[in-house]
Amino acid sequence: MSVRHERSRSVDRxxxxxxxxxxxxxxxxxxxxxxxxxxxxxxxxxxxxxxCREVTEFATTELSALIDDMFLTMHVxxxxxxxxxxxxxxxxxxxxxCPDDYGVRHVGHLVNPVLDLPDPGSxxxxxxxxxxxxVPGATMTVPRTDRAVARGFDKDGNPLVxxxxxxxxxxxxxxxxxxxGHTYLDRLSKRDRKDALRQMEDRRDxxxxxxxxxxxxxxx
Length: 220
What we know:
Layout: H1 5-8, E1 15-17, E2 20-22, H2 30-34, H3 61-76, E3 81-83, E4 93-99, E5 105-116, E6 125-131, E7 139-145, E8 147-153, E9 159-165, H4 166-179, H5 190-217
Parallel strand pairs: 1-5
Antiparallel strand pairs: 1-2, 3-4, 4-5, 5-8, 6-7, 8-9
């Protein structure tokens, strides 16, 4: 998921890492410092269209390396969230570095997530702009609930419950959609989907160029 710049410029320094509050956290998370940049898949590729597999082995070098790479790839692409199939790996896993509507920065990863949304009677849908790193350059208005809870595990197999409101709730829903083989385009009308694909066609080269420049600046 791509992040809107006005949110990323918040002056509030509060942060929650894996759901736990901290007073401060580096701009570039430690995982990203260890990672390597991977290619981001683009809508139309088969790996984005099929449900991802459950992670069955935890606390492995391979899983930790994947998470590190996903954090750096997300950072280079100016993203707020990234699912494993967006780097070509069909596992139920996503990472996030996303602000909410109150200026709190949320950073972490979630393995085998299950999403809980409010009951329909108490559900509040918010129309807001949404982008996707796998639909480079396009943004469209998508309705999402303003609250969400994602339950899963960390890379060592410890249970996690991550709660989100506002823009961060949108991020949790967006990334969980990826793991079921869907992108936000699937939530659009045919007309809006065509509009998003036209935006991508017009802007993708510029997006790829910015990513390459940022990766080069980081020496990656």
